[in-house]
Amino acid sequence: MPAPHLDRIREQFTRQADAYSRMRQIADERGLAALVALADTKPEDRALDVACGPGFLTLAFAARCAEAVGFDATPAFVERAAAEAARRGAANARFESGDAERLPFADASFDVVACRAAFHHFPRPARVLAEMKRAARPGGRLLVADMVSDEDPAKRAYQDRIERLCDPTHVRALPESEFDALFAAAGMRVLRRPESSFDYDVDEWIAHGGPGPEAVREIEALLEASLEIDRSGLRVRREAQKLRFSHRTVAFVLAR
After folding, report:
1. 20 to 30 Å CA-CA from 189: which of 31, 166, 226, 229?
2. Domain coordinates of the chain in residue numbers?
3. pTM beyond 0.85
4. CA-to-CA dists, residue 243 to 130, 144, 188, 234, 240, angstroms
5. Which residue, 7, 9, 4, 1, is CA-closest to 169?
6. Looking at the predicted structure, is the pLDDT value of residue 25 above 90?
7. In the CATH hierarchy, which fold is given to the domain comprising 3-149+169-198+248-255?
């Protein structure tokens, strides 16, 4: 991954590690268990969680399989995840730090290789996908779960502008068609693709990125402008006098 972008990721998520870890969408145990089950995880499997963040998905895999490894670019997340594993007594979970474009694991090392809520941070998603595929054994499964953007280029650009104002490490949200093209180019077949959505209170969502006051005002103005006419594809609405929006998400299960 380009060094300047990797540095931005480490700076952003070191600063915001606590706020990010507290997001209910990130720590939702039922949703995490559903992803582990979706990947058809077996008791004898080894699982790799790429861009694991605070390690919640890694630990959900550890509860279901023989060994789970979490991998993230930000040492602060790795330390936090390792501490949580120790607190839970998850001796079969371990964590490492590094670049997702250069995974330090041998070919065909894992039965399941997952990446949740991170592809929109990757400048070169095809390289990360290639590394995930390399680390998976033949016959294994890949799980890629992330937000998907609207197929309309104008709405995509509008959403990406909002996302970057909140979190400067956001590169772009991919539409579902681009994910499909990415998987096809890597020679991978999609087995399953359940959809869901993450619903946010705008204030809650802004807190995870920690932008400054000027950026907050611009985010709010852009979302307000998307109330009457959907400029962003984010289903912006006002509920109980609060501004809210939704990320549409897809979890792709791929055959290695």
Report:
1. 31
2. 3-149+169-198+248-255
3. yes
4. 39, 29, 39, 12, 8
5. 9
6. no
7. Rossmann fold (3.40.50)
